[in-house]
Design goal:
The protein has about 270 residues and is mainly alpha-helical. Helices cover about 80% and strands about 0% of the residues.
Length: about 270
């Protein structure tokens, strides 16, 4: 019996941790190999030359401008909503949160269809805006509206988590000193939640830069970088889509750098 007990203690045990590393490593390879392959598919000199083509420059300009406007609007409207969601105690708060998350779970093309039913060229709102000289489709405004629909939830959800992470006793102390709710939010809550808010703002910009489905449905022109990638692929082949694709990958990497340096990584 003692010998059997000794053999049991020294028998090799199944190492699940190493197995998890191997299985997860396969997925990690699946992530990295295609991205690496993209950069190896075209010589850097050729990519640099193609970056100066008018179609690429116009698409990059449109994407940067629209994503910047989208980020500003999403932040200006999303932070108050995030603060309310973090501090409200009403029973229907979860219903509001569900409405915020809904654009994230909708397929992007469905998001475009949903927008077209409200602000499309044949709708009451779309027709009135077009008559006023501000068309809401096939325009830069349309691009921003499409990006805002799919990207703004990121700042709301991330900022909500950042606000909830602020120690409420600090806010109570500020209020006890006679500060208003607005002054407390501005001087206490916002600075402490700042890194998390910056993470949400960064994610909004990155998501807006990469938005394709809703933009295709609502505002095919002016072309953003994702739309230009699709057009280049369909009309000229895969090789012609590489330059803009590489640029978008570089922007995505830049987003990760921001999240891991000046912002608070929302996934940690």
């Amino acid at each position: 019996m003692a010998a059997h007990s000794t053999r049991s203690r020294h028998a090799p045990r199944y190492d699940w941790f190493k197995t998890a590393l191997v299985l997860g490593g396969l997925l990690l390879v699946y992530y990295l190999v295609p991205v690496t392959s993209l950069f190896l598919s075209v010589p850097p000199a050729e990519v640099a030359r193609r970056m100066t083509e008018p179609t690429v420059v116009n698409a990059a300009t449109t994407s940067l401008l629209s994503a910047s406007v989208t980020t500003v609007v999403a932040t200006g409207l999303g932070l108050p909503l995030a603060y309310w969601l973090a501090r409200a105690t009403t029973p229907w708060k979860n219903a509001v949160l569900a409405a915020v998350v809904l654009p994230l779970v909708l397929p992007p093309t469905v998001g475009g269809v949903v927008l077209l039913t409200v602000i499309g060229p044949n709708t009451l709102v779309g027709s009135a805006a077009a008559a006023a000289g501000v068309p809401l489709s096939r325009s830069l405004v349309g691009v921003v509206l499409a990006q805002l629909f799919v990207a703004s939830p990121f700042v709301v959800i991330t900022a909500k988590a950042a606000f909830e992470g602020v120690d409420r006793t600090l806010e109570h102390a500020s209020r006890s000193l006679g500060k208003s709710r607005w002054e407390t939010a501005r001087r206490v809550t916002l600075p402490l939640a700042g890194p998390g808010i910056l993470a949400g703002v960064t994610l909004v910009f990155a998501r807006a830069m990469g938005e394709f489905g809703a933009t295709m449905m609502l505002a095919y022109y002016p072309r953003t970088m994702p739309v230009q990638i699709w057009v280049s692929f369909i009309s000229l082949g895969l090789d012609n889509a590489y330059p803009v694709a590489i640029l978008l990958v570089l922007l995505a990497v830049g987003t990760l750098v921001v999240l891991n340096t000046v912002a608070s990584n929302p996934w940690e």
